[in-house]
Amino acid sequence: MANRHGDFIWYELMTSAPDAAQEFYSRLIGWTFTNSDATDTDYRHFSSAISDVGGVLPLTSEMTDGGARPAWVGYVGVQDVDASVAAIQAAGGSLHMEPWDIPGVGRIAFVADPQGAMFYVMTPIPPEGQPDAESRSFAAMEPMEGHCAWNELASSDPASAKAFYGKQFGWVQDGDMDMGDLGKYEFWKVGDDRGHMIGAVMPLMPGMPMSAWTFYFRVPDIDAAVEYTKANGGTPLQEPTEIPGGEFSFTGIDPQGAGFGLVGPRKGSE
Fold this sequence. Notes:
alpha+beta; 2,3-Dihydroxybiphenyl 1,2-Dioxygenase, domain 1; eight-stranded mixed sheet; Anthracycline_SecMetBiosynth; VOC family protein
């Protein structure tokens, strides 16, 4: 694949009600959903008008009995899943699901950083005849509606998180923003001459129970998206906040309890 070691390449919604989640997000973000034929489970892909963005994993009773809850999880592409798992564990991270193969798709493992924020590592198999195929789930180089625009880690120990992700994936700090008493919002990019912005790490905010990733998906009208969220069973966590560049970000919880982020323009201010 053309994506590099350390790129975000897929996003997954783990949910207790896939039909309801599909209805909510298809209207909120405009995704089209299709059933995957790669597994024998009810795994659904969601796509923008450009390409696939991610998938929906139904939570079984066995999963919830084991502590799984609705959540968004990101996939980080790596050159070798097994080597990455070993390095993650050696650096204080944890393994939650042993590496496994999905025929025709790739090799995957479910892990967490030393502070407990969960993510997948994956070595994908390129589509037949497309050895340089590239995931566009994360819109790293240009804005794309329906795609992830920003990856944000809230960590109980940002300094340790920076060292961990830097060692595992080559991410480096590229500036910061002072949040006063709340600490610093530190920007991350891939650390090579082709590096692009990935997102940011920030201190865990008051009321947040544990370290976790939030993924911000692009919408054409942030206020319309917020109103839709409120009217359809979602719960706002933070009302639209202006960000550098003049757009606005919003965070909320979907009707099943998964936290999500949105970013987009405020139509009235264009």
